[in-house]
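Researcher: I'd like a candidate sequence for this fold, 293 residues long. If you have to choose between options at a position, lean toward the conservative one.
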C-alpha cells in the first residue's frame, strides 16, 4: 500500500503535521527514531498551556492522541534512504523495509554542535543552554556565563543581560573590537579573555589561570545543522541560516523537490517547540491541499 504522506520525524513538528492530515482522514506513516533535540532537558518552557512540563510528556501526550486516529501507522525506527518522485516516494528503513508514499515530509530536526569545553556536554540542557527565552527566567537574575563560539555569540552576550549579570567568556573563539566592547560594557557585561579549562559542579568554570567562576547557569550559541542528511541526499536544496544550515522550503513548506516538504527546526529559524508545532500544522494542511488540488 502507498501512504498519502510519510513523515520522517515524530516529534513536535512531525506530529503537528500528522494531526492535520489524520483529521482529514488521510493515511499517514510516521517514522521516528526517538531522538528529540530537547531530550537532554527535564523541563520545557514557553509553550502555551505546557509551560514547565517535561518535554517527553508533551510528546507522549501528543502521540497518544494521534494514535486514536485509525489512519495512522507509527514505526519506531530509523529511515536511512529516501528515493523516487512525487506520488511514488520510497523510504528505506535501517532494517531494509521499504515504504511508499505520495508525499514525504521531513520533520527530522537539527543537531547541536557544542563547543569543545571539557564537562560541557554532560551539562547540556541542565545548566548549559542556548535559548534564554526557554531557560533564562529560572536563573533568577543571577550570574550568567556566556561561552563564545563565534561572531553570533556577541548577539547572545548583548541579549542575555535581560536575564541576569553576564560574563562573556571569549574562550579564544573570537576577538571583540573597541566598538563592540563599549556596547557590551554599557550593558553591564564583563568580558573574560582567559580560556576555559573545564566546567565543574553545576555551572562553575575553571579558567586556564586557575580561577574558578561560579554561575547560576551558562549559555552558548551552538551551530545547528539538519539531524538527518536524507533530504540533502534526495537532492533537496540546503540553505544557510545565522546558526548553521537548514532544508530550504517555500511558503507552503515544500522543498526544492516536488512532493517533498520539510518543517520544524529542520526547515525554519529560530527554533522552539511552539514554532515547530506551528510550522508542522501549516505543513500538514498544505500537504493535504496538494493531495486535493
Ligand atoms: P525534534 O524535536 O528535534 O524531533 C526530530 C525527530 O526526528 C526526532 O525524534 C528524531 O529522532 C527524528 N529523526 C531524525 N532523523 C530521523 C530518521 N532518519 N529516521 C527517523 N527519525 C528521525 N524549545 C522550547 O520551546 N522550550 C524549551 O524549553 C526548549 N528547551 C530546549 C533545551 C535544549 C537542551 C535544546 C537542545 C532545545 C530546546 N528547545 C526548547 C528547542 C526544541 O527542542 C526544538 O525547537 C524542538 O524539539 C523542534 O521540534 P522538531 O519536531 O522540529 O524536531
Ligand atoms: Mg518532528
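Model: Candidate sequence:
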Amino acid at each position: 500500500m502507498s501512504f498519502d504522506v510519510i513523515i520522517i520525524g515524530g516529534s513536535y513538528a512531525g506530529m503537528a503535521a500528522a494531526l492535520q492530515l489524520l483529521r482529514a482522514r488521510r493515511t499517514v506513516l510516521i517514522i521516528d527514531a526517538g531522538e528529540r533535540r530537547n531530550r537532554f532537558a527535564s523541563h520545557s518552557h514557553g509553550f502555551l498551556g505546557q509551560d514547565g512540563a517535561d518535554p517527553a510528556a508533551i510528546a507522549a501526550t501528543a502521540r497518544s492522541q494521534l494514535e486514536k486516529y485509525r489512519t495512522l501507522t507509527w514505526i519506531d525506527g530509523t529511515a536511512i534512504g529516501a528515493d523516487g518522485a512525487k506520488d511514488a516516494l520510497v523510504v528505506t528503513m535501517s532494517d531494509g523495509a521499504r515504504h511508499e508514499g505520495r508525499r514525504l515530509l521531513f520533520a527530522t530536526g537539527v543537531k547541536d554542535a557544542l563547543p569543545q569545553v571539557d564537562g560541557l556536554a554532560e551539562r547540556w540542557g541542565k545548566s548549559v543552554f542556548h535559548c534564554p527565552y526557554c531557560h533564562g527566567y529560572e536563573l533568577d537574575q543571577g550570574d550568567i556565563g556566556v561561552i563564545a563560539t563565534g561572531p553570533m555569540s556577541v548577539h547572545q552576550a548583548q541579549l542575555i543581560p535581560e536575564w541576569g549579570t553576564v560574563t562573556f567568556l571569549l574562550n579564544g573563539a573570537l576577538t571583540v573590537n573597541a566598538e563592540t566592547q563599549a556596547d557590551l560594557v554599557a550593558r553591564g557585561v564583563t568580558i573574560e579573555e582567559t580560556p576555559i579549562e573545564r566546567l565543574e559542579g553545576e555551572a562553575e568554570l575553571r579558567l586556564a589561570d586557575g580561577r574558578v567562576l561560579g554561575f547560576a547557569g551558562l549559555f552558548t550559541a551552538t551551530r545547528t545543522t539538519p539531524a538527518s542528511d536524507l533530504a540533502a541526499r534526495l537532492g533537496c536544496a540546503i540553505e544557510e541560516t545565522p546558526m548553521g544550515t537548514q532544508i530550504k522550503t517555500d511558503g507552503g513548506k515544500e522543498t526544492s523537490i516536488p512532493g517533498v516538504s520539510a518543517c520544524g527546526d529542520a526547515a525554519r529559524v529560530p527554533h522552539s517547540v511552539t514554532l515547530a508545532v506551528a510550522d508542522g500544522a501549516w505543513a500538514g494542511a498544505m500537504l493535504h491541499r496538494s493531495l486535493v488540488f
